[in-house]
Amino acid sequence: MAPQAEPDRSSSDHYGLVFLLLIGAxxxxxxxxxxxxxxxxxxxxxxxxxxxxxxxxxxxxxAGTAGRVLVAGVLASVVVTLLVTxxxxxxxxxxxxxxxxxxxxxxxxxxxxxxxxxxxxxxxxGALSVYLLIGFLFAALFSALSQLxxxxxxxxxxxxxxxxxxxxxxxxxxxxxxxxxxxxxxPARSLAVLDALFGQIFLLTLVARLVSMFGTRRDx
Length: 220
What we know:
Elements: H1 15-31, H2 38-52, H3 63-83, H4 87-115, H5 121-148, H6 162-173, H7 186-212
Helix pairs in contact: 1-2, 1-5, 1-6, 2-3, 3-4, 4-5, 5-6, 5-7, 6-7
């Protein structure tokens, strides 16, 4: 009897929806800069996790539990953002969000590289979603750094709110370099270098490769 082919679990992915939700979270964070207004972006992040981290999406018998814990953590972050004003607590929330985003990026890359045999539009949306998540990851790290250190995050006294931090993270990731916001201090500068390196390496390797293979079948 011939062995049965492994089922294509990529058919359950909805990366187009994930991409739209991430664009919505980006616009909300950019337009509403008040610290407590981050709850709207966090709620969209929770929706992204619900779409991505379903039990069918993760390997292992405890996958569903891991997904529920992460979603619950993001929702708890919403409550903390609304009720607590302590800088250290907000830095912990930002670090928790960064860890959640890093886990989500790893899951998406695992699914894109393992389960997609044919490069489709969903594959491209998945790669672009990971690219956006990298930007959000570094925005969360910059936010945590701005809360933890006493010195300003940006030079020349530029404000470090959710909107400017997100702007700086994505502008740095794309290496646009307008120069209107400049990292001040060694920790912020080192993080900015990593932001630019991760963004460019990902864009010029995986995204470019998948776009060039659009509509073709990949080897195992």
